Amino acid sequence: MTNLTNCTKGHIIGRGSTATVSIATTVTGDRFAVKSTKLSKSLLLQKEQHFLSKLRSPYIIEYIGFNVDYANDIPLYDLFMEYATGGAVTDVIKRQGGSLDECLIRSYTHQILQGLDYLHSNKLVHCDIKCSNILVCEDGVKIGDLGCAKLVENCGDTSSGFSGTLVFMAPEVARGVKQEFAADVWALGCTVIEMATGCNPWPEMNNPVSALYRIGYSGDVPLFPMWLSDEGKDFLKNCLQRKDEERWTVKELLQHPFVNINSSSEKIESFDSPSSILDHGFWDCFEVTDTPSSTKFMTFSGESPVDRIKKLVETTPCVNYCMTNWIAEEDWITVRSNHVDENSNITYEDSQTDVEKEDDDSESTRSDSESLSELYVEVGFSDSVRIIVESNVLETSDANVVNSKFLGFKNINNDSCLLVDSNLNVALLIIAILAFAYVLIFK
């Protein structure tokens, strides 16, 4: 326990309507805050001491003790509390240029809700939630200034009158009807607006009487900041319902996605994000099996492209199985680009390609070959790919006509080509296709 008699009061760091706040230092160098007022006017401060002394939460400013001191023979009532090194949230808003970013607002709001949940579970209504009463400590923000707090007996009427800051009051409080837990929820919505804009929720109202009437009877609600996310606006909508019974409770708000960091985070298996189609079994996507099998994820981070291709060829268990679905005839003859849009699924089509007349040398060269015997890959920008599974060359007096049947694939882009002999075995054919994919990706 801190020895409160052997401490030195320092400079004043804040002033309220009834008290001043100073920094006090002990002989051991520890610092804490001292809230002081004249003993004759210390009723609210003594009530705050009564509540704080019974509370202990990481989201409520910590109580240290109290003392009666004298200054110029005038008795002072001192309340000793944890020192908030970051000041109040209003100070943070000023340091941030007049408003807080949404990420910080979400974090602060979540912690304020945790503090309100603790107070409400102890049947306490804070009655004056606003940025100047939210203190920034080394381990997070905490609710302070419980001078207006009220005890609610059995969740019924409050045991005393109404109090708080007018522009943060709920409509039922402004009308003088009641001040219960829902009033803190309304004030929290106003506090979120204050964090987002740097202003109170009713900045256009200067006359207290007209403000009291508008809040209590007009049916208006504070304007939501336009730049706030949809989740933030929905959070405010649930806080700022004019009918207190329609407002969300603190426990419900703690589950709202605006403040609940776990609401959109599903527990999933961790693995590296794929950097290309070579990762995560791209080639086995053409076959759907009825019996589920275990998936083997491979980490390629830090490996060269050559090593990645080699590992994929050596370790992928279903390559041979999948490749059988690609063979339409005994051998693959030609793969080339096509400027006609293809279906996403594998489709067969017959086409005739007219080959224009060429000079004598090129024509004699072509007539030496009656059919194509290579695997030929040629892909143009934004083109689909077709695999020729049957090709016949018909010679006429004017030109050669190639009649071909194709296997079509869509959305493979580049202008590169690959030539492979059709007599290669299946393993080399796999390597050829993977090498072609490498050219498409890394060129």
TrEMBL record:
Residues 344-371 are annotated as: Disordered. Keywords: ATP-binding, Kinase, Membrane, Nucleotide-binding, Serine/threonine-protein kinase, Transferase, Transmembrane, Transmembrane helix. Its EC number is 2.7.11.25. It comes from the Eukaryota. The chain crosses the membrane at residues 424-442. GO terms for molecular function: ATP binding; MAP kinase kinase kinase activity; protein kinase activity. The keyword RNA-binding does not apply. The keyword Transferase applies. It is an enzyme of class 2 (transferase). ATP binds at residue 35. GO terms for biological process: signal transduction. Residues 7-259 form the Protein kinase domain. Residues 351-362 have a biased composition (Acidic residues). Belongs to the protein kinase superfamily. This is Mitogen-activated protein kinase kinase kinase STE-STE11 family. It comes from Helianthus annuus.
